[in-house]
Amino acid sequence: MRSRGPGLRRSDSDLSPILNRRLTPLVQTIAMILPPVLGAALQIADLPARADWLKRDARDLEIQNPCQPAFLDGDWRAAAREVRTVLDGHTGRVGVHAPYDGMPWASPDSRLVAAMRDRLLESLEFTAAVGGTHLVLHSPFLYFGSAQTRFRGAELADGIARTVANLTPIATAAANQGCLLVWENIFDLRTDPLDALVAAFGSPWVRRSLDTGHAHLMTARGGPPVDTWVHAAGASLAHVHLQDTDLDSDRHWAIGDGGIAWRAVFAALAALPEMPRLILEVSAKRQDRSLAWLAERGLAR
Predict the structure, then answer these.
(1) Is residue 227 predicted with pLDDT exceeding 50?
(2) What are the tens digits of pLDDT across the range 85-118?
(3) In-domain check, residue 194
(4) Domain residue limits at 115
(5) pTM for the whole thing?
(6) Which of 241, 234, 167, 172 is nearest to 197 (CA)?
(7) Short-list 194, 62, 199, CA closest to 134
(8) How many domains does the chain fold into?
(9) Which CATH number belongs to the domain containing residue 140 in this structure?
(10) 3-class SS string, the chain
(11) At 203, is the pLDDT very low, low, confident or very high (cuts 50, 70, 90)?
């Protein structure tokens, strides 16, 4: 495994410009009146065609190539240099999606944990190389039958404790480089196990993420509507994947093509003390259509 130095240690006071750019009172007032500006999740190959759009309104960006482990096995440093070149002049925030296939964060297997840590440290290195300040992790609460079958009572507590123990070095490394770790709901039926996991890290650099499509899909199993997830996460919600879907599968449809109650979602977001990073996680060709649908209704721009 690689040996990496501790890097520059960040204090909690460094969080403000990371979470929400420092705003003058006038800009704060304007931000409360105007709909939020949406960012986008993209592959590096899509950046040249979307760069001007990202730069024009300082849109946030999430680079998703590291989801595929083969990317981190390649020349990701050259890819990071390409990203910096294409994004020259971009003033929005940048983040990265970490690998997730075959990553059981609560594993008791020390060799597997070492391999997962190495992958995440590589992901953090790439994040730093592109100037990123968030890294998305998938929830460890997978299930067979029901989202809570294996995660209740003492077993839930054990799963949380193992996940925290396994990934505390990653959380520390992320904080040292000024990067948020955000935990995304996947098969989660309820909000509280994931909220408890985030709280167990005891760090302002470990926060909640929400995938709107995943949450909506779980309403078919009795889960709460998407806006309830926003309210439950509250101030811990730092990041949102915006996508629409039906109740059949994880579609990543354009906004408005599925069944999510978007007015309720954006009303809940507006009630938060700080607006999370709002990332359109739909294909590049669906992003403009999604934004047009939301803009027509005065929900986003």
Answers:
(1) yes
(2) 999 999 999 999 999 999 999 999 999 999 999 9
(3) yes
(4) 51-294
(5) 0.89
(6) 167
(7) 62
(8) 1
(9) 3.20.20.150
(10) CCCCCCCCCCCHHHHHHHHCCCCCHHHHHHHHHCCCCCEEEECHHHHHHHHHHHHHCCCCEEECHHHCHHHHHCCHHHHHHHHHHHCCCCCCCEEEECCCCCCCCCCCCHHHHHHHHHHHHHHHHHHHHCCCCEEEEECCCCCECECCCCCCHHHHHHHHHHHHHHHHHHHHHHHHCCCEEEEECCCCCCCHHHHHHHHHHCCCCEEEEEEHHHHHHHHHHCCCCHHHHHHHHHHHEEEEEECECCCCCCCCECCCCCCCCHHHHHHHHHCCCCCCEEEECCCHHHHHHHHHHHHHCCCCC
(11) very high
Query: Could you tell me the two tokens for 269?
Result: 């977001």
Under the phi-then-psi rule, with left for phi > 0, alpha for psi from -120 to 50, and beta for the rest, what region is 179? beta
Residue 42 lies in a domain: no
Query: Is 188 part of any domain?
Result: yes
CB 112 within 8 A of CB 158: no
